[in-house]
What does this fold into?
Amino acid sequence: MLAAVDSMASISRQVIEDAIREILAEELEVDLRSFGGNGSSTPLLGRGIGLDSVDALTLISALENRFDVEVSDDDLTVGLFKTIGTLAEYIAGKVEERTGTPNAQTR
It folds into this structure.
């Protein structure tokens, strides 16, 4: 299990994507293998993983706790959940806002 990121000043998008996959698998019981891969471009809604509104909020809450960020209600749009990558990029930006340190954008 990935540890909470309390003191880490910078975090890569890949670490965030891995955390998203972990939360999907462990907390939402999503079998990512069913989607022909679980890369950055895997859609979270609709014909992708198919998260509903409760699943999406569960995922956001877990990410807020893990990365010590806050997602505003105004940001909870369909676009935020377009893919694993778009959500990871958003969370990386929130971590950067919190720490004031640019994130490592390694993939």
User: Anything to note?
Assistant: DSSP finds three helices and no strands in the chain. The mean pLDDT is 85. Residues 13-99 form a domain with the Non-ribosomal Peptide Synthetase Peptidyl Carrier Protein; Chain A fold (CATH 1.10.1200.10). The CA atoms of residues 48 and 87 lie 14 Å apart.
